[in-house]
Sequence to fold (722 residues):
Amino acid sequence: MNLKVENLALFGKTKNIERMIDDLMDCISNGAEIFQTGINAYLDGIEDDRCDDLVHQIRDLEVEGNRLRREIEGHLYTDMLIPDSRGDVLSLLEDINFLLGLAEDIFLAITVERPAIDDMFKEDFKLLAAAAVKAVESAVLASRAFFRNITAVRDHLGKVSFHEEEADQIAVRLKRKIFASDLDLEKKLHKRYFVDKFDRLADEAEDVGDWLAIYTIKRSL
Amino acid sequence: MEITVLVFLTSGLFLGWSLGANDAANVFGTAVASRMVQFTTAAIICTLFLILGAVISGAGAAHGLGALGKLNALPGAFMAAFSAALTVYWMTKAGLPVSTTQAIVGAIIGWNIFSGSITDTAALTKILATWVACPILGAIFGALIYKLVMVTLSRSRIHLLRLDVYTRLGLILAGAFGSYSLGANNIGNVMGVFVSSSPFSDFSVGDLFTFTSIQQLFLLGAIAIGIGVFTYSKRVMMTVGDGILPLTPVGAWVVVISHSIVLFLFSSIELEHFLASNGLPTIPLIPVSSSQAVVGAVIGIGLLKGAKGIKWRALGNIASGWISTPIIASIVCFVMLFFLQNVFNQVVYHEVRYVISEPVLVYLEKAGAEVNQLKAIQGQVISGGTHFRDAIRGAQPDLTQELEQKIFDAAELYPMSLSKDKFVKIDKEFLSPEQIEQLHALSGRTFDHTWQLYDALSNKSKEWKKLEKNKLNKPFNKHLDEQLTYVYELFHQAESVDSGR
Fold:
């Protein structure tokens, strides 16, 4: 008879949920990376097939993320785990998973609407996407820390705010540049639309961070 | 068996039910209130382990069990148990965690007043000390352990879900152990007084084991406690676990552990003996109570968090419940005894008689007491503790409390006859063969005072002789006291004219 602790039903189930939470975080992290690769590929004018492939990848990750989130939620409720922080954990998982959905939306919109980005704006668009992705990744790290190392959450949340601020500054700079250019108004507006979308990704990451800060205070009380 | 014994047994069962309804909160209150353990799960585990505790450990020390045993007439004991149960029931209805033992002590005080017996002032100071010292100790341990656990947890980086499992397991284990000792320690109060009139008889399952009548009686009592847990304990659980301060699961566990540690450190004679026998400094033993320790531990955690979350009004209610419990129990007991005696014509107490005889004076002088003036009342048989106290104070006004107690112990008439027919009843497992042999050597003799029998026995055998009073010898002396009480009661010769009617 194998009596390893991991094999006992009680611990086995918990370990399984722990793994699912880690997998969900991986999905979001990988999704953010694909988002950045995809944006860069689009801006660098790499062929459409590559971009479509990346869209599929991020979409698959989003589907997987949703499945994991639902399954985790189901387990937390049916097994009545973590009663005092269950609500917070569920909100956290919903919010962080929303970031993946948002990244997928933005990238899909880019490939569908195909905004014409002039060379003079490309570098700033890349920087903006990078800052938003860093904000998302920091939010993922903070969320992981929430489960394992509550004292480290603060450090990661500091980075989320930093990258969000960075994204804001780039967005403003980029918008000024766009509207100072000689482009037609509809092109200016189309670009501004995407600048706002990129910036929103960073903003949402910051929102996740703000809520996470509250959940962390609640847990350490 | 008389039908009245069955009627009287119901008060024990009612007390058991009240105890279950109130005291289960001490072991599972925080676990249930923090939603870590479902109420039904907690009730099942609690009931199971308290039945085991009562039947296995409770019955193992069935002799000299329970404070109610001091009451010398069964109807009186019935009423004291009933009054205590009623008081605890009221407190449970109000959702207040109280000490069942204190309710019983209160009821005994009511009985003492009614029967004209002297209440040991130590019993009163014990209660007062428990109200103050126990919550303070609980708070100190609660705060320290909470801090320690939080620091350890932040360093160990356990996953939130893993921590959840560990905490749940910890709560269930601590609750199970707590329930076991709840059953073992309290069954004596619930059923101890009925041991001598148990309606059951022993039966054996093959050669495997014997289920003694005491175990059956205690099983019945434990089932009553269990029913109390299932039917009525949730409200007090919510007060303990949520009413004073909403607790996190880890906090819930810390509370249960702190209360167990306080009970163990400050009330365990075994621990004191272990420390003393290894030359280590001992921890002073003080009266402790689960309910007070649990509430103290919750407050300790609350204070550590800055005292903002503590609901002081709820705490005030609990404290007033503590104070009113023994008072209500004593008043209810007094009034009910009056009815039982005068309306139902029951003997609720046997008058205790005292005499200052020549042997008593010699005995006291030998013990170094100055009792010359007591000769004025020599030979008078005085009934009732208060009358006797007035008499000796009248004869010798400068008595110290200690000396007064000595005179009481020496002068109490407790006629015993070591007649042959009583020897067959001796519990051979409770007394050693040598002890029994020495009792046989005294066969046929009679004694008026317990100390006379003790002197006769201790002169014959070391096994009957108390050791020098110190911490090391405490467990031996305590056990010997229980054995002596058992022997005194076994050979006690009831007098014909001694009723309290």
Observations:
- Residues 350 and 496 of chain B are 10 Å apart (CA to CA).
